[in-house]
Specification:
The protein is about 30% helix and about 30% strand. It is α+β, with helices and mostly antiparallel strands. It has one domain. Strands 1-2-3-4-5 form a five-stranded antiparallel β-sheet, covered by helices on one side.
C-alpha cells in the first residue's frame, strides 16, 4: 500500500483497486484506521484523539488531491505524494 503522506509520525496510505467509499488508511504508534475522504471522518479502526483531529484537518486541506489520488488508484495509475501538515 503506497505511502502518500507523512506528518507528526502519522503515515497516510492508499490502496490500489480498493472498495468504495473513497478512503485512505492512517497509522500512528501502532494504531490503524480508515478515514472517509469526503467527510474526513474515521470509518474503521481506532486512533488517538489528537492524531485523529490532525488527520481530519489534513483531509479537509487536501480533499481534492485525495479524491484525485483515489481516481488514479481505481484506474491503476500512479498515486501522487501529498504534503503533510506544517
Amino acid at each position: 500500500m503506497p505511502v502518500i503522506s507523512t506528518f507528526y509520525g502519522i503515515i497516510i496510505r492508499m490502496n490500489f483497486n480498493d472498495h468504495n467509499p473513497p478512503h485512505f488508511h492512517a497509522e500512528y504508534q501502532g494504531f490503524k484506521a480508515a478515514f472517509d475522504i469526503r467527510t474526513g471522518k474515521l470509518t474503521a479502526g481506532d486512533f488517538p484523539v489528537n492524531a485523529k483531529k490532525l488527520v481530519e484537518s489534513w483531509t479537509k486541506l487536501h480533499r481534492a488531491e485525495l479524491l484525485a489520488n483515489w481516481e488514479n488508484a481505481v484506474e491503476a495509475r500512479p498515486i501522487e505524494r501529498i504534503p503533510g501538515m506544517e
